[in-house]
Write a structure and sequence with these properties.
The complex is a heterodimer of chains A (about 190) and B (about 450).
Chain A lengths: L2 H9 L3 H23 L5 H14 L10 H19 L16 H7 L10 H13 L3 H13 L3 H8 L3 H19 L6
Chain B lengths: L2 H12 L7 H11 L1 H45 L6 H19 L13 H12 L7 E6 L3 E4 L7 E3 L4 E2 L3 E5 L5 E5 L4 E4 L4 E6 L2 E12 L7 E5 L2 E5 L3 E6 L4 E7 L2 E5 L2 E5 L3 E6 L2 E7 L3 H4 L4 H6 L5 H16 L4 H8 L6 H9 L9 H14 L5 H7 L5 H15 L7 H6 L2 H18 L8
Parallel strand pairs in B: 9-10
Antiparallel strand pairs in B: 1-4, 1-6, 2-3, 2-5, 5-8, 6-7, 7-9, 8-9, 9-12, 10-11, 11-14, 12-13, 13-16, 14-15, 16-17
Classes of the chains: A mainly alpha (about 190), B alpha+beta (about 450).
Chain lengths: ~190, ~450
């Protein structure tokens, strides 16, 4: 059943239909919030707020076919509000816009201390590097790994072509590999 | 095709998004381009790591959905309109009821009787006695594990390192694996889709799913209640799989006693018993105990590469190969351990015992797996293997070194298999010298 069908059922009073929409979109909304905020801390609340606000205001959705982009719009607004509301003592990841040169991300990455990490640490380190990617790469990578979306789904969601999705994932992988490779210590 | 285009196609290949015909073009390029081959290998490893890194986040996304839905249901119920006078009426009724309970008009006289101290200790004392201290800790988990305390009706995610009280129900979702440690030293591993109650450190009730119990020896018996039967550990290690119609008990070490439906039987090490309606319906000898508990391998990998249990498993798989012949299934079992198997395999190749002629095939297989899966920390071991008597082992070591360092000293891997040791000795010494100069660039251990 399509998103649009589920939206229509929800509007006719069938709340179970919205439950299906929530389960269908929770991964993508969580990925989007994670990408916008740049860390996992506190994002689960933002996701839940998005899903609830979507339920409360679904009657304002003009085109049921655009449920996904409408819900993602709510998520982005909630994330931006959250960023504005917090006084940060460090540079926010939102400052890393698409115009930022990826090489500067590599240059500014902290020195690797060269110590071997156990697997859990390694995965945490990898996630930290994903979170530190420039937003356009971070966003597509997170959407891909959170929800197993196809290039076509990703392209539709991000309003870009499939080739752009492919290129961004390629760049993201290259940056991550470079960042995860131990540096030469002299 | 240039390398930039090849990288885009490698990425699409990993994501299974290649267009028709692109796969063949990519393979042609990879055949001739070592740098892109190396990138493809590295990105595949990275892809697997990303999948593992995101596994808890995917679970968090599901939890977010369920929590939002729970809130949504509450909102839906509470938003239904009630008459405005209803809260006032309810408040008045509650006040009246409270007054009745406090003044107890039906009691003619209240007599205060001092309670003996001993009575307080036994009766009131037992009620107010603090609950048994939590002695169960979630040690390892690949995703969220949920627990519901005995006095609540709310399932909450348990964090790794968190202690839970006895009486707690625990459940794991599909593909969620975890390990609990009891204070007596016992370890209980849970497979995906499991539901159980930790009644005490030596008593569990398993209603669904699969566990592996590694039981610490203690005077008090370790028991697991399953539908219509109780399994008591007389030894130390057993696996229990609770299905809809039957329970399968596999004993890995020691023996267990099964009681139920008026019967009692002992199941020994290396045996599997099928329990139906509390009785043992059938007992079989298990040919491959490692296979029976293969589901725990992911947990072992989460514990790190240099853990003894993992090394023991690799040794056991290798030993089994020795008993029969090299099996593609055994090789797959080892490969599934990823780079965690590299250290035990390297130790095996270097052991004197492996050099016997009957182990030639097994050594070659071990070297092949090491070459495919080795990471930078194993470079010094690989250099040692360059001096092995067996050309196949030298070839595999050279192949891995080239992949990891892009260095060959003008000697391609196949030469390490084909040339005589006299002509290879100089290059081997170059590798040793190179390592002394460059070892600070690589991690020292797994």
């Amino acid at each position: 059943m399509s998103d649009a069908d589920l939206v229509r059922q929800t509007l006719s009073g069938q709340t179970l239909a919205y439950e299906e929409l929530v389960r269908r979109w929770a991964g993508r909304v969580t990925a989007l919030c994670h990408a916008k905020i740049g860390r996992t801390d506190g994002i689960d609340d933002l996701v839940q707020e998005t899903l609830l606000r979507g339920y409360r205001s679904i009657s304002t959705l003009a085109d049921p076919n655009k449920f996904g982009s409408w819900l993602c719009g709510i998520a982005v607004r909630i994330c931006l509000d959250s960023i504005k509301a917090k006084v940060r003592t460090h540079i926010p990841f939102s400052a890393l816009g698409p115009e930022q040169n990826p090489e500067s991300y590599l240059a500014s990455a902290p020195d690797d201390d060269g110590q071997s990490l156990d697997q859990a640490d390694e995965l945490r380190h990898l996630m930290a590097q994903v979170e530190a990617l420039p937003e356009e790469y971070r966003e597509v990578l997170m959407l891909y790994y959170y929800d197993d979306l196809t290039y076509r789904d990703l392209a539709e969601m991000l309003d870009v072509s499939s080739a752009t999705v492919n290129a961004r994932l390629t760049k993201a992988r290259a940056l991550l590999r470079q960042r995860m490779t131990p540096k030469v210590r002299r | 095709m240039d390398c930039d285009r090849a990288l885009v196609l490698i990425s699409a290949d990993i994501d299974q998004a290649l267009e028709p015909g692109e796969g063949m073009l990519l393979q042609e390029h990879l055949r001739d381009c070592a740098a892109c081959r190396s990138t493809a290998d590295a990105w595949r490893v990275q892809h697997a790591q990303l999948r593992r890194a995101f596994a808890p986040r995917r679970q968090a996304a599901l939890s977010n959905a369920e929590r939002a839905l729970a809130q949504m249901r509450v909102t839906t119920v509470s938003s239904k309109r009630r008459p405005r006078w209803l809260p006032m009426l309810l408040s008045a009724a509650a006040g009246f009821l409270l007054a009745i309970l406090v003044f107890r008009p039906w009691h003619e006289k209240v007599v205060t009787v001092p309670i003996p101290a001993t009575h307080v200790d036994t009766e009131a004392g037992s009620k107010s006695m603090p609950k048994e201290q939590p002695t169960l800790t979630l040690a390892v988990a690949n995703r969220d594990v949920f627990a519901c305390p005995s006095d609540k009706d709310v399932w909450q995610a348990v964090s790794t390192g968190e202690k839970i009280p006895f009486g707690t129900q625990v459940r794991t979702g599909p593909a969620v694996l975890c390990e609990f440690h009891a204070s007596d030293g016992s370890q209980i591993r849970l497979n995906g889709g499991t539901e159980l109650v930790f009644n005490s450190s030596r008593h569990l009730t398993l209603s669904k799913g699969q566990i592996l119990a590694l039981v610490a020896k203690a005077p008090k018996p370790f028991q697991v209640a399953v539908p219509k039967a109780t399994v008591t550990a007389l030894g130390t290690e057993f696996d229990l799989q609770c299905k809809a119609a039957e329970t399968v008990l596999t004993v890995l070490e020691g023996s267990t006693r099964v009681e139920g439906n008026g019967t009692e039987a002992v199941v020994g090490s290396g045996e599997a018993a099928i329990i139906v309606d509390g009785k043992i319906k059938e007992t079989q000898t298990v040919q491959n105990l490692i296979k029976a508990t293969e589901w725990t391998h992911e947990l072992l990998m989460l514990k790190g590469r240099d853990n003894q249990e993992l090394a023991k498993r690799v040794d056991e798989i290798l030993a089994r190969i020795g008993e029969t012949k090299v099996s593609v299934f055994d090789e797959q079992d080892i490969r599934r351990l990823g780079d965690h198997c590299v250290l035990p395999l390297t130790r095996y190749i270097q052991s004197e015992g492996s050099r016997a002629s009957e182990n030639k095939e097994k050594r070659a297989m071990a070297a092949r797996i090491v070459a495919d899966l080795a990471n930078p920390w194993s470079i010094p071991y690989l250099i040692e293997l360059l001096a092995d008597n067996d050309g196949q082992v030298r070839y595999q070591a050279a192949r891995a070194l080239k992949r990891l360092t892009q260095q060959t000293f003008n000697r391609e891997p196949n030469e390490w298999r084909e040339k005589s040791w006299d002509s290879l000795r100089g290059t081997y010494q170059k590798w040793q010298g190179w390592w002394q100069e460059n070892k600070h660039r690589y991690p020292e251990s797994p």
